[in-house]
Specification:
Layout lengths: L4 E6 L3 E7 L5 E8 L7 H18 L10 E4 L3 E3 L4 E4 L3
Parallel strand pairs: 1-4
Antiparallel strand pairs: 1-2, 2-3, 5-6
Length: about 90
């Protein structure tokens, strides 16, 4: 099955988001400007969630059709606790 996944790259300038098939084909893309959110993590999370839903709607997908989400961050994280300790950007 070629079930899609969502990839999110949180960088210092942009937050890039895409829907990717197991074949590697990117079927949708979107981005947000990182600096717009500053240190307001709640607004950032809300904006990323809304962007995910918007991109899913554009592809006529429901969240149940997504196999998983991967998020990349440029810093020190503790995946077992779900904490971001330091983001240099």
């Amino acid at each position: 099955m070629n079930q899609p996944v969502i990839g999110i790259d949180i960088g210092g300038t942009n937050i890039k988001l895409g829907i990717i098939l197991a074949s590697g084909k990117i079927t949708a893309r979107s981005f947000l400007k990182t600096k717009k959110f500053g240190a307001d993590r709640v607004s950032l999370i809300d904006a990323v969630a809304e962007t995910i839903h918007r991109v899913l709607r554009s592809q006529k997908l429901t969240p149940q059709k997504i196999k998983g989400i991967g998020i990349g961050l440029p810093g020190l994280i503790d995946p077992s606790k779900g904490w971001v300790h330091f983001l240099p950007n």
